[in-house]
Design a protein that fits this description.
The protein is mainly α and 459 residues long. The protein has helices at 4-10, 14-49, 51-88, 91-118, 120-125, 131-144, 148-163, 168-190, 200-224, 233-237, 241-273, 277-293, 295-313, 317-352, 357-390, 395-418, 424-431, 434-448.
């Protein structure tokens, strides 16, 4: 399976490699699990309230989802640089990148806040034409939108910290946020401890307070504990033009990639949203199951980007090739494990939630599709988000998603739904086909080693 003679010649300590990767993956997998837990808490609690309320919160969450993808694109573009500069030991440049990323994130989140407050109905109509679902979604957006700027600041800071191997702080912040969110959701949604029963507005309020807690914890960590990499206001006001150019070269393709990928996922949701609330509710649950099944895989992709980026920054390119091979095989194993998990939990989940018979039927089929979808997603994410971006190869992912998602799965899914009037299961299977199409293309790119480049400058 692996070329042992070549790796032995490089003198790689694989035991040390696995320990280092484990130390990165576990906290980041826990972070992903915690973030999914916030969504899962909303789904479970609002699913007990009613299908329309669950659908409203799910579709309103698509606005935040697209915003988060902008943020993820910005931070991923930044970590292309920070991971390699971390390998060089250049903390001054990392501080400049942190300030630059923070400025960009505040602009993006402010725009989304304004849109969610000014035109919530228009945003909801993108995803559904059901008046009841739109009304519930508007209630949610008008409260949760005040958390967007706080999310931007927190996410940029924690992602930059992750890229320099400070991964535990984000785990602690998000864990405390999850505990706060679940407790407040229960109190506000169902009217516990003497509070009025707020329904979907209670879920939004619980989320808002939890985001405020995250921001306070991040400020506390930055002020008290982090002595190596600080947020410096002078870098926020005055940025290095050469660094801005590098940031834009690597960040813009990632931002476009993540946003187009996110808009593709939102388009899938919108297509299903116009096929009835039963399809929306089932898809909401299926997406949470997918996220839970891929928390470790997504943690691996982030660890891959950090580990390989640092290795490339240290000028050890042959070692980076060897490590990338191991990351690929680990991703395949994790994808298979995630698919098996979805099949195991399927009968328990479908009988637990208060869904209609039609929604339950859809959900069973969606779980089957997700069981093989997550295998392809694990492999593709590790390669595109982890391996390729670690070497500055950010444009390939953009071209890949444009062709496979927008040119294949979404286009044919749209035609199947609205032209050929196919059933929900058929449309869903087509919409979820893109990860399978990507696999041979990403493997080809990986074997070309065109992604393996040092993108740092001598400052």
């Amino acid at each position: 399976m692996w070329k042992k003679s070549k790796y032995t010649q490089l003198g790689i300590n694989w035991g040390g490699f696995y320990r280092s990767v484990f130390a990165l993956v576990v906290p980041m997998a826990l972070q992903n699990l915690i973030n999914v837990g916030v969504t899962a808490a909303d789904v479970v609690m609002l699913g007990k309230v009613g299908e329309k309320v669950l659908s409203g919160a799910s579709l309103a969450g698509q606005v935040q989802y697209i915003m988060v993808l902008f943020l993820f694109g910005l931070t991923s573009g930044a970590t292309v640089l920070t991971a390699q500069y971390w390998g060089k030991g250049d903390t001054v440049t990392i501080e400049k990148i942190l300030a630059l990323g923070m400025k960009a994130a505040m602009v993006v989140t402010a725009l989304f806040t304004i849109a969610a407050l000014a035109i919530p109905g228009v945003l909801m109509q993108i995803f559904t034409n059901d008046p009841e679902v739109i009304a519930e979604g508007i209630k949610y957006l008008r409260i949760v939108s005040f958390s967007y700027v706080m999310m931007g600041i927190t996410q940029v800071y924690l992602y930059i910290m992750r890229s320099v191997e400070r991964v535990v702080v984000a785990t602690v912040v998000y864990l405390l946020s999850l505990i706060c969110n679940v407790a407040l959701n229960a109190i506000f949604i169902f009217g516990l401890l003497g509070c009025p029963k707020m329904g979907i507005q209670g879920a939004a309020l619980g989320t808002l307070i939890s985001r405020l807690l995250e921001l306070v914890l991040v400020f506390g960590y930055a002020k008290i504990f982090n002595k190596d990499i600080k947020f410096r206001f002078q870098y926020f006001l005055h940025t290095d033009r050469l660094l801005v150019k590098d940031f834009l070269v690597y960040a813009i393709p990632v931002v476009m990639n993540e946003v187009l990928w996110g808009m593709g996922t939102a388009a899938n949701t919108a297509i299903l949203g116009h096929m009835g609330s039963a399809a929306v509710a089932a898809n909401s649950v299926a997406q949470v199951a997918r996220q839970l099944a891929t928390v470790v895989s997504f943690g691996l992709s982030s660890a891959t980007a950090i580990y390989l980026g640092k290795t490339i920054g240290e000028k050890r390119l042959e070692h980076a090739k060897a490590y990338a091979s191991r990351f690929l095989w680990i991703s395949l194993f994790l994808g298979i494990a995630g698919g098996a998990l979805i099949l195991i939990v399927s009968p328990f989940v479908t009988g637990f939630l208060a869904l209609t018979a039609t929604a339950q039927k859809y959900l069973k089929f969606m779980f089957f599709v997700m069981s093989y979808f997550v295998i392809g997603q694990a492999v593709n994410t590790t390669l595109v988000v982890g391996t390729f971006r670690s070497g500055g190869d950010t444009k390939f992912g953009l071209a890949l998603d444009m062709s496979t998602m927008w040119g294949c799965s979404i286009l044919f899914g749209f035609l199947a739904a609205f032209v050929f009037k196919c059933s929900v299961p058929v449309v869903y299977m087509i919409l979820m086909s893109d990860e399978l199409i990507k696999i041979p293309i990403t493997i080809w790119r990986y074997k070309s080693y065109k992604w393996l480049r040092d993108v740092t400058r001598e400052i």
